[in-house]
Each structure stands twice: as structure tokens, then as C-alpha cells.
Amino acid sequence: MVRAAVLPAVGSPLEITEIELPEPGPGQVRVRLTAAGVCHSDLSLTNGTMRVPVPAVLGHEGAGTVVSVGEGVTHVAPGDGVVLNWAPACGKCHACSLGEVWLCADALTGAGAVHAHRADDGSDLHPGLNVAAFAEETVVAANCVLRAPDGVPLTDAALLGCAVLTGYGAVHHSARVREGETVAVYGVGGVGLATIQAARIAGASKIIAVDVSAEKEELARKAGATDYVVASGTTAREIRGLTGKQGVDVAVECVGRAATIRTAWESTRRGGRTTVVGIGGKDQQVTFNALEIFHFGRTLSGCVYGNSDPAKDLPVLAGHVRAGRLDLSALVTGHIALDQIPAAFDDMVAGRGGRALVVF
């Protein structure tokens, strides 16, 4: 039996309880977690913004060590360090055939499987976003594990599985930031901090961090922000003031709120690009009039998992880490235990801190 954080139902608090985890079957891998990041997507599962079968073991950003493998698994072996990939591509659907593996139609089919059972009553548990990383150990499909890159401690490598892939991909794959361009990043949480670092790596000449909390300025500047704006009704105007009254070339929205998306779009120059990373609810409606769409010539695009291919991007990110260009520790504002995840959720709701990292 292992301890895990279980969501019994949408809208219910997490329960830290013991679960019975099966041995890996054919094509499966059992992993002992070293660390797991607490992501806003996990919070979105608890409140119903994103929906998966429940009850479920949450957690999707993690890294650990292979304990055992099932029949047919050859790319990893017991003792190997691995990073969890919560959205594995099937390689067969239409999106995958186009090379857009981040849009794979079957990426989350594993979330409907029975993953484990509660130790107290034997009831079925699902694996949240496929990998059930909020647990001491997990059993996942073989395509949900990637070899951890050399030279990156497993505790840090956990962040590569979601926050860093998303932030880096938003800058390099979706917005395609070019050297010398100006960038505004809305939301200074784990993904926002990764986005700021990615913009710095891309050679952005000015990186403006925006958040509702003035207390996050130090975090943002440590990550590479050149300017900091406390969000208000005049945010877009302030950003234009910092860019010669033009607006930034690129805005990356990491919040998922209609008002923030609209402000991010307004803060770009004519012909500017806005990438939306944040996951908002169906009630968050963003509106534009036809004339402004024509006049400003701006681009607004969604971004799923950083438009990344983890198998290709993980080695690139590791190279930046080893070279000192990417500081994973700059994303983390707290190392916590499994039973402190609910408090980390409260901090996210209140807008406090960056990434909380569960260390096992």
C-alpha cells in the first residue's frame, strides 16, 4: 500500500489516504516518486473546470525511479530515473499524423482506467491526468515515462514534466519569440516563471511580468523579468508606456481569465501575438468587435502543453539547465509533504508564491 492524495468527487476536498496499487501489467511501469509539482491544472480538476473520471488520484507533474516494469517494456528498467508525461501521444490520430502531438485525440484516454483501489473500502480509483503523481508510487503506461535527462536532479526534473515544457513551449513553439522582441507575461506562478525564463533564453529585449500580487516582483525579476506591473484596470496602458507607446510584440497569458486574456491582447502592438496558456472555465467569455480585429491585425492563439513534444523537447530543456540558462529552483517557492497539498491549493487560489513541490 502507498499513500496518495485522492479527489473523492468534484468540489470535495482532497483526502490523503492509503491505496492498493497493482503490480505493472504488460506495457506498464511502476515508479517510486521523488517529487511532484502542484499545478493549477490539479486545482482545475477539483473544482470541475477540467473534468476527468472520479474518484481519482491527482498529480501530473512528477519524476521518480522505476521500481518494476511489465512485459514488453524495454525503454526503461528498474533503477532508471524517469520524468512522467501526462499527455502521451498515440501516434495514430489525425493530430499526430500532422506532427501536432500536443493535440493528440487519445492523450487522456488513460484517465478513464481503473488505476488503484482505496485501502479502506476497496473502491475504484482513476489516475487523474493519466499518471497519478500525488502518491508515493504510481503505475503508468509505458509511454507515460521518459528517461530523466543526465545532470538534472530528479527533484528538479519533476518540473520539466509540465510547468517548464508549457512555459518554454509557449514562447518557442506557439508565440515563436524572436531575439530582440518585447514580451509581457501575465501570471507569475510556476508556468509564468518558466515562461519568463524561456523569454530570456529566446533573447527578448524587454520582459514585463504582470501579476495581481506586488509580492511576486522579486520572483519575477529573479527569473529574468526586466519590468514588473501590478495588474489593474490600466495594465495595458502601463505596458504601452514601457514600450514606446507601441505595446509588446508578444503577450503570454498564464491565468485563464477572460479579463486577463483581453488585457493581454490589448497590451500587444498592432500585429502583435497573444498566446493563451491559462485554462479558463466555460463561463469565461472573451469578446472582440469586428473592426478592432481588422484594425489591429493581432493574433490570438491557444496553447496546449506548450505545443510541445516532450520526447524532443526534454533533451533541449536539459541542455539549458546544464548550461545554467534555465534555473529550475527559481520556480519553486516551497518544498512540501503530501498532506500539505490542500494548503498549496489554497495558496494558488490566493495568488501566493510560485510552484509548490511535493518531495517524497
Gist?
The protein is of the alpha/beta class and 360 residues long. It has helices at 40-47, 94-97, 154-157, 163-174, 190-202, 217-223, 235-241, 258-266, 290-296, 310-322, 341-350, and strands spanning 2-7, 15-20, 28-38, 56-57, 61-69, 81-84, 116-118, 124-125, 137-141, 145-147, 182-186, 206-211, 227-230, 248-253, 268-276, 299-302, 332-336, 355-359. The protein is built from eleven helices and 18 strands.
What would your notes on this structure say?
- The chain has 360 residues and is of the alpha/beta class.
- The longest helix has 13 residues.
- The mean pLDDT is 96.
Q: Helical stretch count?
A: 11
* Helix content bin: 25-40%
Coarse morphology? globular
Mean pLDDT: 96
The total of beta strands comes to 18
Largest sheet: 7 strands, mixed
Structural class: alpha/beta
Low-confidence stretches: none
Tell me the β content. 25-35%
How widely separated are the two ends?
15 Å
Cα-based radius of gyration, to the nearest Å: 20 Å
Helix-strand topology string: EEEHEEEHEEEEHHEHEHEHEHEHEHEHE
